[in-house]
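From the thread on structure requests for the teaching lab: each student submitted one protein with a one-line request. Submission from student K.M.:

"Model TRAP proton/solute symporter, small membrane protein component from Geotalea daltonii, tokens only."
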Amino acid sequence: MREEPLSYAPFTTSDSFGPFGNLLLKLSRALALGGGLIFMGLVIMSLVSVVGRKLFSFAVPGDVEVLQMCAALALSTFFAYCHLIHGDIKVDFFTHKMAPHKVALLDCLGSLMVGLFGALIAWRTAAGALALKEVGETSAILSWPVWIPQALMVPGFVLLAVAGFYMSIHQLRLAVWRSL
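Reply posted by the TA:
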């Protein structure tokens, strides 16, 4: 049984991923960094609003609406990167004594499920955004169209689906390679 050295350091590429996998890793990292910047902006906005409310009788208009819409968008950007660097929560209580190729097969199945879940969520989020656009729903205070932040979540979920399917194939290759 041969072990393949794998690099899952967060800011490097993986030698075992190949060109498409490394491109996927870079793209998902860039999207996650963008989501982190959105969260930083939300924190600053919330601080300004809370401190302004307490000290100067000033609040950012619609701060809760902005927080809700942008936090959902930012959150959707992290999933693909997390999956690609094996940042998912895994319970290996039953698998820690299994052969590496069997664990890789289980990881393959798990990644396939992540890919299917990402595709389902992307599809339903896009359908929901289109429905919201049709009815013209807007936020209560700022009157922002609600469909826009929902539609902006779709690329993160599509990337999660692609990452899940890619990792499923990658783990299957590892399982076959490790069983030799």
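TA comment: Residues 1-8 have pLDDT under 50 and may be disordered. Helices lie at 18-55, 63-76, 79-84, 100-135, 147-179.
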